[in-house]
Amino acid sequence: MRKKGLLTTLILVVLIAIGGVYGYQHHQNATTSSTSTTTSNVRSAAATKKDINTRLVKTEIEAQSSVTTTLKKAVADTSLNLDKMYTKVDPYGVSPLSAVAIFHTTKAAKVSYTVVGKSKGTSITNTESKYGTSHNLTILGLYADYNNTVNLKVTYKDGTTTTKTIHLKTAKLPTSLASVKINVTKSNKNKMALGTGNSKLTFMVRTTISGTNQAKNYSFGIDADGAIRWYTTKPTSHIFKQLTNGHLLIWTKSKNSHSYFDELVEMDYTGKVYKTYKFNHKSWGKAKGSKKQNHNQVHHDVTELPNGDLIATVSDGGRTYVEDTMIVISHKTGKITKVINMKNLLPTKFYTQYHATSSSKYMGKRDWFHQNSIYYDKTDDSLIISSRNQNLVMKIDYKTEKIKWILSSKKRSAWPKSYRKYLLKATGKISWPGGQHAAIVDPSSLGQKNSLNVLIFNNNIAVGETKSALKKSSGKYSEGVEYKINEKTKTIKQVSAYGKSLGKANFANIIGSNRYLSAANRLIDFGWLDGGKAANVIEYDTKTKEQVFNVKLTNLGSGGYVYRSERFSLYPTKHRYGINE
Question: Which one, of 393, 369, 565, lies nearest residue 464 by Cα?
Fold first, then answer.
């Protein structure tokens, strides 16, 4: 029996060794593989799905049911009119600078309404899209701790009009927001991209490592004067996006008292919840010998796909690696339908031999990739992703996961020969990405044959071994960069850049964004300055390099820095990624 047991053990060892060698060779010889394919180093898609376990829940919708009932009754009450209307500030209890106003008119009419600003160019106006007799107005852009004046203009089909003024009193800002110092040093309202009716605010997307000693990191929007005109009391970390339907998507907590984030919530600017995706917060996947630590939740980005599904950056849930996996979540079921593990796409040595960065945050896990953005290119059904710790931006086919091109700051010789055909070659001098963030596309370049313009926030920090040009500039400045990529010839040239002239004072070694606002304007977020104690958001003209808006934020609180800055409309008609990204 003893000899038989030893023989069985020997056979098993040989089989495992053969399987391990085959898995390694299979991964090395193919640039892509199915998400279900695993090697000795890659966790299976099935295990990741089970570990994260996303699903739709109705907890928050049900919690709002009494408010929904009250508002429905008001809409049905035909006795309400201009002189006796129903108004409610912060109807859902999580958006203090929002309100609703409900009333009826005897004849079909359109209502235009304005929250009167405190200075020229800060009044916010919206108009109903259709004529009707029932009017349920969403009033946004109120000031905090203020008796806001709202002017209404009712226009009937025959051209006659009626006006009405109402006042809406709001509460003080919470201490965590009131303590933030917002200093606007430049505000050229005529040149800023403020949208129809000045409805676009500059949003500060907060982030934090959860915990009792961290700031209550409420995301908020400011006007051209720097006044906070919208915020939510739901904690938000990293994810603050507008969906195609104009709703917000935020990464938040099922309970504010929790030390962890575990829900993606779709809501509107009044705080009404439409959908909640719940994640398994107990899926620790801890490293050997470490304390329990949650690392497979959403960490940097979520993007909406054309069919309404969501693709999110996560970790694979294993004990070794973090922040190198994407999951696709069905908007119908809330379940994970696809897993893309970057260890299946890139050379094995990139993650098995990675030593460029280390952090106690990851409790011994290896942060070899550190994906910080996803952009979906609908023109060819592909994904453009940014990897901070590999200093690379790459494009892959969404369905097949085949690599289309790679913008890499590594020396060409650092890549296995089978990958070199994907590397973009520079024509002229370019800023090579160093620890970069937030890769998106200039929407005006979408659909151009074999050509694409890509924007990044280039932190300009050399992570690991890089090209000599990046090593020389590393740490001296950060900048927003736009490249033009010829996807057929695999060449890249630089279109524009902004930030170098600001020098080391605006060097942000982590986080940041560079957003497209218009043909000329961009919004850049130097989100981590002075060791995370300050942030500087600038709107600039790409042609003249003129600043049209400049705001400095200080006294942000622990972990309350500005992860990204967005320019969103409070009244979006249709969201377009790249413009309102």
Answer: 369
pTM, two decimals, is 0.90
Distance CA 501, CA 337 (A): 46
Backbone φ and ψ of 26, nearest 5°: -60, -40
Close Cβ partners of 260 (under 8 Å, ≥ 6 residues apart):
210, 253, 281, 294, 297
Residue 93 corresponds to which amino acid?
G
> Which one has a higher pLDDT value, 217 or 244?
244
CA 316 and chain centroid, separation: 20
3 phi, psi to nearest 5 deg? -65, -40
Nearest residue to 374 (alpha-carbon basis) of 299, 483, 481, 308: 299
Burial class of residue 2, CB neighbours in 10 A (0-12, 13-18, 19+) = exposed
Exposure letters 155-193 (e unless 16+ CB within 10 A, then b): beeeeeeeebebebebeebeebbeebebebeebebebbb
In contact, 561 and 527? CB cutoff 8 Å:
yes
Secondary structure tally for the chain: helices H, strands E: 7, 33
Instruction: Tell which residue, 387, 405, 388, has the closest CA to residue 396.
Output: 405
Nearest to 325 by CA among 271, 285, 265: 285
List, as one string, the DSSP characters of 480-531: EEEEEEETTTTEEEEEEEESGGGGGGG--SS--EEEE-SSSEEEEEEEEEGG
Q: How far apart are CA 120 and CA 398, in angstroms?
A: 47
- Judged by average pLDDT, the poorest of 20-29, 457-466, 483-492 is 20-29
Q: How far apart are CA 141 and CA 228, in angstroms?
A: 8
Distance (Å, whole) CA 149 – CA 466: 56
pLDDT the model gives residue 73: 96
Neighbours of 1 (CB within 10 A): 5
Instruction: Return d(Cα 277, Cα 297) in angstroms, integer.
Output: 12
pLDDT tens digits, residue range 336-370?
Answer: 999 999 999 999 999 999 988 877 666 678 899 99
C-beta separation of 122 from 199 below 8 A:
no
Q: Which residues does 432 contact at the CB level (< 8 Å), separation at least 6?
A: 391, 409, 466, 467, 469, 470
316-325 as b/e: b if 16+ CB within 10 A: bbbbbbbbbb
Q: Which residues, at least 6 apart from 93, have a Cβ–Cβ distance to it below 8 Å?
A: 67, 233, 271
Tell me the one-letter amino acid at 497: A
